Amino acid sequence: MEPFKEIAQLGNKMLPVKIFITELNQTCTYVPPHWHDFIEILYLLEGEAKIQINNSYYDIKSGEIILLNSLDVHAVYGFSKYLVLQFDTSIATDLPIEFNKLFPFNDDDKIIKQNKNYIDYIETIRYYMEDIINKYNQKPPGYEIDIRGSIYKILASIIAYSQTTSKNELSYKKHKENLKRLEKLLRYIDEHYNENITINDAASMLNFAPNYFCRFFKNTMGKTFLEYLNFYRCSKAEILINTTNKPITEIALMVGFSSVAYFNRVYKKYKGHNPSYERKKDNIVQIKDNI
């Protein structure tokens, strides 16, 4: 599996759709950066969250909506509960041309904030997303047709909200090309994150000058190379802390940190608490270390 690429089965050919609720709490505090080949719409039901979309970050509160294109690198942080609707763009193939022109979503339209001018659009989208999840779970006769109809009404509301049918096609293609160029490096990080990987090493792998590589990586991934590498290592460390009895010092070395003090600082920066607190949480899963 390619690093950070989500692979999901979206229903079937007749209804390429998936809908579910995600909750971030003390057990699962974030959804790490990833992308996928389908459209995703998030509706924040409870709490507040920080959303990363490519190289931008947004503070989102309950009642607001996020629109994500395929290949958008995105992540969610903060205790929150949100409704997720995923679907393939093929669902709009037979619709009038203005629907197909909607994809990819314009960058300026990806966050639908709570605003009295937008409340009708938000309420319409929320209503039909809740209608979809009810029919998706209950599967009454003809539910596939009903769900398609609800998705079309959601898309119509998004078109009305954006007041445009133009798409930022050039930017979208450029981002797709940039991700493709980073694919080799991201796969290498996934396999060698516990080794010493310098900026020069990473730049050389892509035949980039180091300074250009740093700008290219941040513009594409929304983080500097070091931030990305440290975040990835901390994510691996979190798994080891929660699923083994290995000492924190050993885990720090296992995931690529040469200094335990530095590991503690970086871990707290990304997770909001130090590694020892992670292990003390009441909901931790203790698994006997067989190694």
Automatic annotation (TrEMBL):
Domain of life where this protein originates: Bacteria
Q: Which UniProt keywords apply?
A: DNA-binding, Transcription, Transcription regulation
Q: Which PANTHER family match?
A: ARAC-FAMILY TRANSCRIPTIONAL REGULATOR, HTH-TYPE TRANSCRIPTIONAL ACTIVATOR RHAS
Keyword DNA-binding found:
yes
Q: Which InterPro entries match?
A: AraC-bd, Homeodomain-like_sf, HTH-like, HTH_AraC, RmlC-like_jellyroll, Tscrpt_reg_AraC-type_HTH
Which Gene Ontology molecular function entries are recorded, alphabetically?
A: DNA-binding transcription factor activity; sequence-specific DNA binding
Q: Which organism is it from?
A: Thermobrachium celere DSM 8682
Indicate the segments forming the HTH araC/xylS-type domain, all copies: 183-281
- A Pfam family this protein belongs to? HTH_18
Q: Where is the secretion signal located?
A: none
This chain belongs to the protein called Helix-turn-helix, AraC type
